[in-house]
């Protein structure tokens, strides 16, 4: 039985922040994305993770994007990907550079993938380190399913990416759409976050719906922001269906606030500005 997400439910999924905590204890996140064309996607994800409360975000982008990414914000720790796209050589160098004690990672936003086996190598390495993982955009390819099956991984497709990943296009009917998400989540042992006017999150056992119906959120970059929120939530809550449900609720509320201010003329960066406001009701210190 699918449940409509409400603030009272989400609050139980977000752990309080310890007043005695030190840098890094509230989340160390890796973002891997970007390409010559889509340089902004990993920046949006990284800043969203920081705005959601992660302490440290490592942003891995192709070397062609390193300088502009560093220049955009001093808050980002930028790691160069030696090739313009994901290759086996680039991945082997990357896994030797990234911190050993990451909490979560998100891969795929704007990312060029030259070799799908290289993507598998990266995913396997992160899973072997017990890193909570979410996959988005170009990382959502059917070849990756065997690598993530039953591994507590979260996938965050829109309808077209869902079809590419699972082979079926989600119908418009919300009941049928929900049943399809539940089926593929259960069959693959993953948490599926299907983006849309109503976001659907399911691990095959628990299912949550987040009806937002925000016409302004069709603008490019909103999914990248969501991926960053997901990764930050995964760094705090290692139950993917709960973390992903928190993420869609917070992202949707931030989008609603941005739309209230700017009407149907928002940008993804506007949503970033409202994440702290959307998070504030859930802020707790112990």
Describe how the helices and strands are arranged.
Elements: E1 3-4, H1 7-13, E2 28-32, H2 41-51, E3 56-62, H3 63-72, E4 77-81, H4 88-97, E5 104-107, H5 116-128, E6 132-135, H6 145-148, E7 154-155, H7 159-166, H8 174-188, E8 191-194, E9 198-202, E10 207-211, H9 222-234, H10 240-262, H11 268-279
Parallel strand pairs: 1-10, 2-3, 2-5, 3-4, 5-6, 6-7, 7-8
Antiparallel strand pairs: 8-9, 9-10
Helix pairs in contact: 1-10, 2-9, 2-11, 4-5, 9-10, 10-11
Give a structural overview:
- By secondary structure, the protein is an alpha/beta fold.
- It has one domain (about 5-10, about 25-165, about 200-280): UDP-N-acetylmuramoyl-L-alanine:D-glutamate ligase (3-Layer(aba) Sandwich).
- About 45% of the residues lie in helices and about 15% in strands.
- It is built from 11 helices and 10 strands.
- It has helices at about 5-15, 40-50, 65-70, 90-95, 115-130, 145-150, 160-165, 175-190, 220-235, 240-260, 270-280; strands at about 5, 30, 55-60, 75-80, 105, 130-135, 155, 190-195, 200, 205-210.
- A 10-stranded mixed sheet has the order 1-10-9-8-7-6-5-2-3-4, sandwiched between helices.
- Helix 4 (about 90-95) runs parallel beside helix 5 (about 115-130).
- The longest helix has 23 residues, at about 240-260.
- It is globular.
- The two termini are about 35 Å apart.
- About 50% of the residues are buried.
